[in-house]
Amino acid sequence: MIKYLFTFLACFIVFHDIMAQDDLLAELEKETGGEKEYADFIFKGTRLINGHSVKTLHKGELEFLISHRFGQINSGAYELYGLDNSFIRFGLDYGITDDLTIGFGRSSYDKTYDGFVKYKILKQSTGAGGMPFTLTLLADASTKTSPDKASAPGITSKNRLAYVTSLLIARKVNSALSVQVSPTFIHKNMVYEPQKNDTYAVGAGLRYKLTQSVTINFEHFIRLNINGNDYTYEGADTFNAVALGVDIETGGHVFQLHLTNSRGMMERAIITETTGNVLKGDIHLGFNISRTFQLAK
Known about the structure:
By secondary structure, the protein is mainly β. It has one domain (2-294): Porin, CATH 2.40.160. The protein contains 2 helices and 16 strands. It has helices at residues 5-32, 267-272; strands spanning 37-38, 61-72, 86-95, 100-107, 112-122, 125-126, 134-144, 161-172, 177-188, 198-209, 214-223, 232-233, 236-237, 242-250, 253-260, 284-294. The strands form 3 sheets. A 12-stranded antiparallel beta barrel has the order 2-3-4-5-7-8-9-10-11-14-15-16. Strand 3 and strand 4 (100-107) form a beta hairpin. It is globular. The protein starts with a helix and ends with a strand. Residues 1-26 have low confidence and may be disordered.
């Protein structure tokens, strides 16, 4: 039950604060004259660490995102502690409206192409008709192009597809602390025994602000229909993904530096294909760096 402790605590913080806010709404409305005020900067980036955050881009914003994961730090000096090996993802995200973001990317991990739609359904706010949390829907599809058709002629294009649906629920508890819970469903069209086509998981994360431009982030995904570590990927045991990172904002850039046991950079790989065992020191140094361009007013 220990592995569920963080998720329980995150949920408890969110919903305890929701109940507490209800008692304060009347006073807040008196002070603000009933005007609705929305919570801003719940998270610095569109990614919490590995997975998506509730943040969507503003209308007309184009974000260029580079994600990088080096090899395992415990691989030794010959591999320069993982720096000789790496996976990289390039992505472009665009804000159709302030609440609707679409994105496309390509990762060297299994030579994967992925695309997503992210829509902000509810916004945390105070005042008249206030909302105690932000809710964003994420729908993602990806296809692996490795191995190629010549090496695996029996694998069709349909076999290579996987789909992810996730509800991202976040609350800015105060000016320093934000928390997020992410129930997630993943379907893979083709798997090998004893893998499962469908995976249910819940993600939990938090952000704590140290300064105006620096935050500490934590993220953990727990698979719900897995019995221990008997779920394998390419013959290796898989584990729940965990990550610890630092966000640094500098103007139009957000630089995220982190440690994680996952090589993947999209939810399908993060949740179902993480083969790093934290207890054995299978940790990857990684970073995300984004640059946002305003293409429309």
